[in-house]
Amino acid sequence: MTPWKEFLRALTEPLDDHRPPLATARRRWLRALPYALVLAAVGSLLPTGIVTLTRSYGVDPSLATALAVVQSGALALGLTRPLLAWQLVAPSVLVGAVATHGAAADQPWPWPAPTLLAYLFLMVLLAVRERGRTLLAVWVVTFLGCSLSWTVFNAHFDGTSVVVAVLSGAVLLLGWSLRGRGEAERLLAEQEQISETERGRRTLLEERARIARELHDVVAHHMSVITVQADSAPYRIEGLPPAAVAEFGQIAAAARGSLAEMRRLLGVLRADGGAPDKAPQPGLADLPKLLATAGQAGVRAELAVADGVPELGPVPDAVALSAYRIVQEALANVVRHAPGATAEVRLSAADGALAVSVRNGPPPGRAAAVETSGGTGQGLVGMRERVRLLAGTLDTGPTADGGYRVSAVLPLDGTGPGESTA
């Protein structure tokens, strides 16, 4: 495309965004401010323009009215379509210059005061809405028109055209700069929102991977037991038929293959460069040691076990591990947000489920939190994922005395993921 065609395109193709200035402002009075300013400008420039053109320049009243209506009334159109408004105003300025040429030697020409003010006001609306190349093209046309007036018609030159050229350029440049800054701030806010969303997703995926790594040991233990039992069955049970011995061998081989596949999966889930965790996964029996560790951090925690829990018998390893991690993360939150507070960990059983409750009181005095509430929330994310894994429920929230509570119900026979409530 030639430069000339590009120049004409800049003057004729506006942006598709037809929102008025400050349309995205949160406050209602800010959104209404452009309309109020345009209304005030039109209400003052319209009658002033008619009177000035008729009395000071001797223009026919009909023509003066038409010029004033176009030049001031276009400001209302400029709220949503400023380039179209300029396309209407620019020819009217030319017509007005012809109509007022030589009419009054003591009056500014070719820019009467109402025309000058309306044009500069329109430059503001253009600058905050149109692209940079359009603003440059508009100023070039304005500059060429002003240059024509002070060179060809220099007998009437009084410096007004220079003022218009300088002020219009300054207004367009300033408005374009402010618009660019606003666009940058908007894009930055959008990017921050996207980053926050991606950070939340990454935290969720990291928690799921960590839970999967921990549950690997639980599943691997059961698979190892199956392998040993299947391999030793022909030696422990006398008189097995050959078909049964072959069946036990196939079971043992399948279990060993599953263990190998799980090890490969664990390698994928493990963080880059992370060493495998060879320590056994904790369970309910490790809660007293966990509470003692919390006590060393300044949180006095007590363990209360309801009567029904001992009668449950062996708790499934996945449930015991999830209960331990929920208590661990809840106590860690107490250490971070309410140092020095007391906490109660309570285990109870009802309707085939294990209920875990961690409740802490407010911190004593004015102890400062180790970590503010603006953290990542990774502890709560981990709790929700563990409860969801076991098809349980989670309830968290502040208490009446200024403390915090975490309550989870973990079914002992959960077979699939469910939904948790936060």
From TrEMBL:
Segments passing through the bilayer: 32-53, 59-77, 84-103, 109-128, 135-153, 159-178
GO molecular function: kinase activity
Keyword Secreted: no
SUPFAM superfamilies listed in its UniProt record: ATPase domain of HSP90 chaperone/DNA topoisomerase II/histidine kinase
Keywords: ATP-binding, Kinase, Membrane, Nucleotide-binding, Phosphoprotein, Transferase, Transmembrane, Transmembrane helix, Two-component regulatory system
EC number(s) per entry: 2.7.13.3
Pfam families noted in UniProt: HATPase_c (PF02518), HisKA_3 (PF07730)
Record domain Histidine kinase/HSP90-like ATPase: where: 321-413
CDD domains reported in the protein's UniProt record: HATPase_UhpB-NarQ-NarX-like
Catalytic activity: ATP + protein L-histidine = ADP + protein N-phospho-L-histidine
Record domain Signal transduction histidine kinase subgroup 3 dimerisation and phosphoacceptor: where: 207-272
Source organism superkingdom: Bacteria
Name of the protein: histidine kinase
Protein source organism: Kitasatospora phosalacinea
